[in-house]
Structures are given as structure tokens and as C-alpha cells.
Amino acid sequence: MAKKINRRDFLGLMGLGGVAAATLSCDYQPTDYEEGFDETWKPWVEPVEGDIPYVPRYYATSVPELGSIGLHIKTINGRAQKTEGNPSHPVNMGTLSARHQTIIQNLYSPDRVRKPLLNGKAITRAEMTRVLKEKLAAAKGADVTVLAGDISGATQDFWTNFTAAMGSGRLVRYNAFTDSYWATASEKVFGRADVPFINLAGTDLVLSFGARFLDSWGDHTAHARNWAAMKKVDHGKRGKHVQIETRTSSTGSAADTRLHCKPGSESVVLLAVLKEVAAKSSKLSGEDQAAIAGLVANASLSAAAQAADLKEADLKHLVDDLIAAKSAVVLPAENTVLGDQSLAHHAAVLLLNKALGGVGKHYNYSAAKPATRTVHHSDISDLVQKLNGGTVDVLIVLGNPNPAHSLPGNLKFAEAMKKAKFSIAFAHSNDETTALADLIVPNHHSLEAWGEVNTYEGLNMLQQPVMRPRWEMAQAEDHVLSLSKELAPEAFAQETMREYVKASFMARFGAEAVDGGKFWRDSLKAGGRLAMAESGEDLPLAANMDAGFMSAIAPMSLSGLALIVQESPRFGDGSGATSGWMQELPEAMTGVTWDSFLEMSHGDAKANGLKYGQEVSFSVNGAELTMPLITSQTIPDGVVYMETGQGRTVAQQTFVRGANAFNLFGGGVNSAGVFAFAPTAIQPKATGKKVKVATYHLPGIGDQQYTPLSPSPYFHEEKGKPDHRFERDLHQSITLEDLAHGGHHGGHHGVPHDKKLAFVEHQDTNFYEDRGTDPVVWGRDQKFYEPYKWEMVVDLDTCNGCGSCVTACYAENNLPVVGKDQVAKGREMAWMRIDRFLMVHHDEHGNSKVDVNFMPMMCQQCGNAPCESVCPSLATYHNKEGLNAMVYNRCVGTRYCANNCSYKVRRFNWFSFAWDDDARWYTNPTVSVRHKGVMEKCTFCSQRIRDARNKAKDEGRLVQDGDFQTACQQVCPSKCISFGNYMDQQSEVYKLAHDQRAYRALDSHIKTKPGVSYLKRTTFDKGHA
Amino acid sequence: MGDISMKNTTKFVSVVTFLVAVCALVGVTAFGQGERIKTANKEVPVGAYAPKQPIDYSHKLHAGDLKIECKNCHTYARRSRSAGIPALEQCMQCHVLIARDRDPIKEIVKAYEKKEAIEWVKVHDLPDFVYFDHSRHIKAGFECQTCHGPVEEMEVLYRHAPLTMGWCVNCHRDNLDKGASLDCLTCHK
User: Fold this and answer.
1) pLDDT band at A399 (very low <50, low <70, confident <90, very high)
2) Do the bridges between strand A240-245 and strand A257-260 make them parallel or antiparallel, or are there none, so unpaired?
3) A777 interaction partners in chain B (CB closer than 8 Å)
4) Is the minimum CB–CB distance between A786 and chain B shorter than 8 Å?
């Protein structure tokens, strides 16, 4: 039985090169105020080399569940505390999305498997080893099948070797959202079954047929970065992003042009665009042109426009833009809206990119992922058949791929798995699949284990333990290695997985290294071998492309409401649903937390007699789902939308919520070899129940800047007026034309309520003059803002509302997850939120169109703060460095400050939120955990400022740009947040604050002198999108 | 990036341990035979906080009579916010040879062999909402005794200073020229 380590006994830390023998560590600060004077301290028995208490250490690693993402795990006192990105990783370059950060919550999940179970009963470790040995020995020579997640590299080789040595079984890898459709499509088009690395760098036009490449699709952190670079305005010009989609997504909201097409018509439009572009392309040979023309002979723009309910003129315009662009990239629709058209669609996207000259530069096959490393859904589909046939002797479920949750309901995986003669789960967490296994063996979490992640060619990322495992357990590979001496003596030469990974890595890359030991250590430090080819070569079209396969593309005939199902950026395949951070992060468009939801337009709801918050049910493919209805202004009529990920059943009770969208999927793989959903007509019916939905935005209640989600007095859609909050110009935009003419106040810009107040010119040098001459304390020789004034600049042009910053703030500042009931009362504790502003346009035909704008909102650190003047206990005050400081232990909880805050960014602790034995492990010891009755808010990561200031002081200099980043700035994939010292005229933040797009929210109305500047969103014309 | 741990950690540690132990032994023996300084024992003042520790450790003996530098054992004080309590291994560097016959040392040896940590009671303990950084104060040139009192004279360690906010702020106010800050955020996190 695994012995639970007493929390105070804490972790010793693994040195990178070997296991240090330390078993104990320094104290773990209790995270409440109750620390009395009788606290004790247990020092190490043997100190760990180089470890200093409270000085963070960073370990570079990668984990298979996140794919091509390099991580830096911050550890303090031997415990992994925060997930950060590896800045030298070519894909994410130090940034992370919200879901990537939850890997740390998974590590400390209450769902972790802590003891071995045999048929549901706890057994001893000796017993577990005995059963394991007995069952595997009995199956020697028979079918031992391993079902794993998206493992790759040496880890994949290990299990392939193992299954081969054991008998006739094989390694089956499974991941609900695979990208193997690229491999099948590439084989069709280029005769090469690889998944290209899609690189948007250097593009000037991105056309996406629905892929939400900024927050969930593909390598979205890299895409967001390159997309942001594309949007950088240079001499009044910048690249353009066009999104053709069915449901307004956050990626579509950030696009310059968003066209709504009817569900199921993306491929038709794509084909018509391909025909036009190929005919006019100068980048295709005559032969290729003819070949493509043959494939798309039946397509036409007018027919496509009709089928998709788009204007033909818009499509023509789009074709012209594509031809005129220097380096356009086209991205496909998401696989879950394509159904059987997936193969043809992706093939057509490849052809279109070929016609635009993007193959090689943007679709890079020199850094491709070979088909052998790609997850093919046909594998698991075959496995289910084999299981049903009863030919699997031992099924080993490795890690937590969880097909029982994310396989199409029709496949009935749970029943099939029961037919294996014996099933073993090496699992770190309990889930639907491990619950079915006969023997459950506790496994290391990915952050505690050795391995290799090898997605794209040249990207060999090493996975190393960042801390000692939480409980005395071994990783699955080590179990196997200890048994393999008897079971399969010829299979492995090594005794531990660490040695195996090292030997494999060194044989491939370090054979010629002069100092092998140093090479290995350097590789671990760097996160592996990160040497992707930056661009590839243009590939010739396959000679034998058969003309028939494009005929799969036809408009889907759908009557009434068409349901589309897409991957949730927050929950993914369901693994994110057990994270409190993800449950509490609002869905970008609807603001819903903690629930599944069915999104429908107001018009459709009215026509169907449904209302916001009603529980509705509908059935598809024989599966019936029930969930609350959310009406929204952003979704077009005729479309209803739901997300995957919720509907977990084996998890902590808190996370068992909503409905499982995978149940709706049909059982078969499509022609691209992937399980796919196709838009389906549904008829939702009210069940009669009403659900209280917890959204971040409370319609009409106490909202100062909140966006109403249902019609409220604040929304004057009928009168054709914009949301009145635009009159307060919180979110501003400017047309590129106005920008080129130097105007600061173009775009959607209201008039100050008090007409006498002129707009403040932030170029004024005397902006902070009055504060700047005040002494901090009368009679002392200290001035405000000398030498620092910390300021932030947020570029609204490149914010796509992904919420990564929000989650980073939770992780850095010990923000509690409050639960659905509290969120419903507007008591979420997020210091940073993404506000969503809607702008309704009406065209000459009376059609309305909604623009969506995102605006990260955090404490503005006002120079003239409304909150400070009302605090009776002086708990909040303006400090010398321009921070609106908040002293938690001085706060008596009157909440006057929150009432007086113009930005609604102060959060009150209505309760002392629980940091249980698991959650305490990832609290940040440099930030206190606030308790009941205390107000809290963003302080620009003052703990990071302090560390940087101290370091600079020791070096006898001032803090410069690049010394540190705030938590939100660090993770932002599109790098839309800048932070620094405003008093340093060389700093980025000073320069950006004087950009002609810069404005300070509400400043022109109420003179709060915020320390945050926003850069206006730029648009191509008035009434963009 | 953290340091790369070395191969042969154990070997290295044992060699160092031996060398240090030998030096210490020689030193202590010299003291013992010659002029071993007898520091006056400072009694625990009435009402001072002096919790009972699991081992009767004497700062007077180590820091006073034997003149071992504070930072010799509290090694992290220069580098971290926490001065740290030395790892058991550090005790063993000397006590692998010295004073093995005494009861407290026997307990230490026993704990070390069983790899069990000794649970010391913190004497100078600040509430969780206070951020205190030892390294900043050491770098500014303050002696440990400024806050911790005449530790080298304490047979039983007690809390010398009140560790109240007023006490901290008074000192900060007097040391503005050394870069002390009066900003609340300096200590309150």
C-alpha cells in the first residue's frame, strides 16, 4: 500500500541526474492565518544539492497530454507549484493556454490513485506485484494489448517493444482530438502520409474555415503568436484575418472579417474558392492547375454562396484578397463539423495552400509528424472489435486516455473492455476507463515520470520528473522493467525508465557528443532537442490523385436547428473538466461556468418557445442529452452549439456536471480515419425544469461594465443603438485609415458624459505631474514614481479572449475556486476577467450583425483611485511605485472600495475558501492566502516586482524591461500584455503608452488616471466584421 | 534552471563530512585543552517565549563558547528569505565524531540513522501575511543579533524582540538611508 507522505514531511527533490536520498524538506507554510507561535519546522535530514528553501527552481519538461508544448515547472521547497512555458521552445515560446496550465492541478488532483485496487478492493503493494506478475506471465505469448494516450518518442518505442516481446498484442494509442486527418489528406494530395507543422509566421492573410486556431485548434499558442505579429500595424497597413464559420467563436470574434455560413457548407465554399484561386494562381504549374481544375469542375462561387447563405460579392472579394496577398494561409474547418467530408475538405485546404504558395513555408513538411506518430482512430475502433471478439488476454490501460468517456457512445467501449480476460490500469487519476479495470496500479503523473515526447520532426522533448512523486509509487514503465527480466528478458537492456530514455536519446542524438554526460544534462536543461526545420520545401502534387474523392463535398441538407459540437478550449476531451480553474473560467462567448449549455439565438429561442435558463433535452444518434439553454446575441439563427468535455461521471463529485457530447457521435470513423460529428438537425424540447446557470456576467444586476447575455435595459438592439456602455468608450477601436491620418479618436467612440471634460491627451508630459511632485510622506525626501512607476499596456487588437491570463492569475496569486453557487451570485474571485463587448450593426436590408470585442480587465492601479479615498482603515493606498496597494491584513471588510471602484475589479472573500490537503500543494508561498472578510485585487504581481527590484538593487542598477514578467503577461499566447517601468523612457510600456492607439479606460470621464493603457483595436473599416 | 545534481552525491558528501569533522575535532580539542571561552549564560527573561525543543540544543555552547558563525549552520540566510534550520546531516558533520556519548547527541544520531526529521519548534515565527526576507537584511549589513538578540549567550533560545509591526517599522524608519522601505507592500504580501 502506498504510504501517504505527511504534508509536513514534504518532498525531497529529485536532482536532475539522479535520485537524491533526501526524504524530508523544510517547512510548508500553512496557508491560513492560523499559524501560531507554536509552529514547528522539520528540516531536511540530508539537504538536496543546490536546493534553497523558498528560492524557486525551474525544471524543463514536456508531457504527452499537452503535445508540442515545452514546460518550465516552477518548484518551491521541492514541490511543483506553477506551470510556465519554456521560452526557448519553438512552438509555444514561453506561452501557455489556459488548459495547459491545469497540468499542475491534475498533479494535485483529489482524484489521484493512491492505492492499488483489485476488483475494487484495496490490496497491498506486494499483492499488487504478485497479481501483475502472475497475469502477465500467464499471458506470455498471447495477446497483451496496451492502450495509451498520445505517447510518442522513446515512451512509444518502449511500449511497442514490450507488446512485441509479450506476444501478439500491440500498442494502441488514443486521443479524442487527433490530427491524423492531415496524414490521410496529405497522402491523397502529396503522396506523403505526414501531418504538416502549420506555421503562420510571415503571413499577411489568414483565412480560416472555422478552425479556432487562436484558442483550441492545432498548435494554437504558436498560431496566436504569429497571428498577433501579422496584426502589427506598420504605416497604416497590416495583415488580415478572415473567418468563415457557423457559430461565432472567440477566434472569429477576433477576426477582421467574419462571415457566417450555414452549418455544413464550409467545404462547398472552400471548393469554390479553390477553383477560383487555382485558376488565377501564378504559383501553380499548368499541369497542377489542370489537375485541380479537374477536381473542382462542379464548384461555383454563386452556388456556394447560395448554399452557405453568403453574398457572392463577399466571396469574390475574398478570392481577390487571397490572390493579392503575399503569403496567405488557409486553415480548414474543425473536424467535428465536417462529418464524412473531412478527407476531401482537408485535401482541398492543402490544394488551396499549394495554389497560394504556402506549402513549405506555412505547411511545413520538413518538420512534419510522421503517420506512425499520429493517433489513428481506426486503431481504437479495431481494438473495440477485438475486445468484443474476446481475443484480448490482457488489456493494459496506460495513463489516462479515457476512451470510456470520449469514444462515441455507439461504440460501447465500457462493455467491450469488460470482455478482456484481464485488464490492468496504470493510472494516475481515477476516470471512467480505469474504473472498469480489474487491477488498478497507481502510476506517476506525467510531471513525476520519465519519458519522451516527440511530435514533429526535430522536436524531441524530454519528460523528466520535476518533483519526488507524491506517494511512494513507481511509474508504469518501471513496473514493467522490474518484471521484464523474467517475462521478456531480451526486450530491455535497462533497469529503469530513466536509463531507457537516456540510452534511447543518447543513441539517437548524443552518440557523437564529446562529453556524453554534459550533453545529456544540457539536453534535460533545455527541455530536449528542439531543432525543428523552420520551413520546408514545396511538394509536388501526387500524380495519381483520383478525381472521385472530392465528390464527397456537397451541402449538408439540414432542416430547422442544426447542432454543431466542438472541442471545448477549456475541457478538451474531458480531462480538463476535473480542474477547478477550467470549470470556473467562463466560456468566452456565453460566460457560462460549471455547466454544459446549449447555445441558441434569441430569435430561434423565441420561435421555439424556449427561454434562457430553461432545461432542454434533445437526442442525436440515439443518445438523449439534457442541459440548460443559453440564448445569445452572437450565434446566428439556425445554429445551436454545444461543447465537449463535460459529463464526466467518475471524478470528484464537484466535477461531475453537465452532459457528455461524445455520446452524440456516430460510431464509425470517417474517410479521413477520424471519429467525426456532422451538424445534425435537432429539436430541443423544454423539460419543464429551470436551471440557475452560473455565468460570469449577471444580466442587469450590479453590472458596471458587464456584458448582458440576455436582453436587458442596457441593450438597445431594437432601437438600433449600440450598447450604451460604448458611450463610456471602455472598449475603443479605430479604423486603419484614421490611424494612418494620425487621429486618436476614430472608430466607435462616444462622447464624454460631461461635455466640458476634454479627452485627456496622454501625450501630455504633465500627466502625472501633480502626483510626481507630491512627497510620499510630508517632510521626507521621497517622491512618488521615483524611480519606478509600474504600468501595463494591453493591446486590444491582439486579445482574442482565450482566458489564459485569467488562469495564470489564479495560479500565481492563490485565487480560490469558489464553485457554481458563488459564481452565480457574482462572487467569483478572478482578479482578471475578460470583458466582452457587443456592437450591433444593421445593414441596409435590416439584417443585424454583431461585433464582439474582448477586453482584459484587471485593477487599473489608478493614480487617482476612487477606492483609496473611501477606505476607512487605509488598507488600500497609492504607493510610491504607482501601485494601488492592498494590505490584506489591514482590511476590515467594509467593501466601500469595491462599491466605489469604477472598474469592478475588487473581489471580496465572502468565505474562507478551502485549500484542502491537495490544493495547498500548489499555493504560492510568496502570496498570502486571504481569508473571510478581506477584499483583494490585482497588484500587478507585486511579489514578482519585489524579487526583480531586489535583484536589480544587488546588481546596482534599475529594473529594466525583460527582468521579469507579470503572470498574465508571461502566458499570453498573442503577447498582448506589456508591463514595465513608465519612468524609463526606453521601456516598451512607455513607448506603447504614447502610441497613437493608446487610451486609458474611463479616464476621460472620471479622471481616475489609470496605470493601464489599452491600445485600440484596429479595424479595416467602420463597422468591421 | 536548477543545478544539475552530481553523480556520486553520497560519496562527495561523505568526503566533505569527514574533512569537516576532522577539522572540527581538531579545533574543538584545541579549545578544550586551551582557552575555551565561557560565555555568560543569559537566563530566559520572565515572560519571554522560549518553547521546549525536542533536543536540548545550546546556542551558547555552539555560537558562544565554540564561536561557530551563525551562518555556518543557518546557511540559507544569505540567499533566501528563510534562514533555515540546518539539515541533520549538517549536525552529523561534527557529531559523527564529537560528543557521541551525550544524550542529546545520541538522539540526533538515532534520528539520522533512521532518516527521521527532528521537529524543531520555531521561536521566531511571523504570521503568514508577513513577508520577511533574511537575505535582504544580511545584505544590508545587519547582524543576526539585531533581531535575534544575544543568541550566543542563550542556553535556551528565547524570542528577544517582540516581532511586532511597530518594532519592524521603527527600525525601518531609522534605516531609510540604507534603503529600508516604509511601503506596506514591502512586508505585506
Assistant:
1) confident
2) parallel
3) 182
4) no
What per-residue confidence (pLDDT) applies to A520?
Answer: 92
Contacts across the A-B interface (CB distance below 8 Å):
165
Contact status of A42 with chain B (Cβ, < 8 Å): yes
Averaged over A595-604, what is the pLDDT? 91
Of B79, B131, B133, the CB nearest to A52: B79
Of the residues B6, B9, B49, B96, the best mutation for testing chain A's interface (the one with the most A CB atoms within 10 Å of its CB) is: B9
Domain ranges across chain B:
7-36+86-119, 38-72+121-189
Separation in Å, CA of B15 to nearest CA in chain A: 14
Chain B: residue whose CA lies nearest to A527: B1
What type of residue is A117? L
Higher per-residue confidence, A974 vs A729: A974
Give the best residue of A29, A54, A515 to mutate against chain B (max B CB count within 10 A). A54
pLDDT in tens, A831-849: 998 888 877 766 667 677 7
Candidates A33, A40, A49; nearest CB to B121? A40
Closest to A445 in 3D by CA, of A848, A993, A65: A65
Contact call for residues A976 and A794 (beta carbons, < 8 A): yes
Express each pLDDT in A119-141 by its tens digit: 988 888 889 999 999 998 888 88
Asked if A521 reaches chain B (Cβ–Cβ under 8 Å), the answer is: yes
pLDDT, one tens digit per residue, over A915-928 is: 877 888 888 888 98
CB A795, CB A976: distance < 8 Å: yes
Neighbour count for residue A317 (Cβ, 10 Å): 13
Which residues face A665 on adjacent strands?
none
- Grid cell at residue A483: 518484471
Q: Residue A1012 is inside which H or E element, if any? A: strand A1012-1015
Q: What is the CATH number of domain A555-695?
A: 2.40.40.20
**pLDDT for the residue A9:** 31
- Three-state SS for A684? coil
pLDDT classification of A1007: cutoffs 50, 70, 90: confident
Q: Find, in chain A, the residue whose alpha carbon is nearest to that of B8.
A: A18
What is the complex's ipTM, to 2 decimals?
0.79
Q: What sign results for the dihedral spanned by CA atoms A114, A120, A124, A125?
A: negative
Joined grid coordinates for residue B86:
540546518
Band of pLDDT at residue A37, cut at 50, 70 and 90:
very low
Architecture of the domain defined by A861-937: 2-Layer Sandwich (3.30)
A406 conformational bin, left if phi > 0, alpha if psi -120 to 50, beta if neither: alpha
Grid cell listed for B55: 533536543
Fold (topology level) of A181-359: Dimethylsulfoxide Reductase; domain 2 (3.40.228)
Using the beta-carbon criterion (under 8 Å), do B82 and A53 form an inter-chain contact?
Answer: yes
Could you give the CA distance from residue A365 to residue A360 in angstroms, rounded to a whole number? Answer: 6
Q: How confident is the model at residue B43 (pLDDT cuts 50, 70, 90)?
A: confident
How far is A650 from B32, CA to CA, in rounded Å? 68
Pick from B16, B125, B139 the residue to mutate for testing the A interface (most A CBs within 10 Å): B125
Confidence of residue A703 (pLDDT cuts 50, 70, 90): very low
Min Cα–Cα distance to chain B from A813, Å:
10
Q: What is the pLDDT at residue A727?
A: 52
Burial of B15 from C-beta contacts in 10 A (0-12 / 13-18 / 19+)? exposed
β partners of residue A985: none
Of A210-214, A365-369, A435-439, B36-40, the range with the lowest mean pLDDT is B36-40
Q: How far is B147 from chain A (nearest CA, A)?
A: 17
Residues of B in contact with A939 (CB under 8 A): 185
The domains of chain A are located at: 181-359, 555-695, 861-937
Q: What pLDDT, on the 0 to 100 scale, is given for residue A469?
A: 82
pLDDT grade, residue A770 (50/70/90)? low
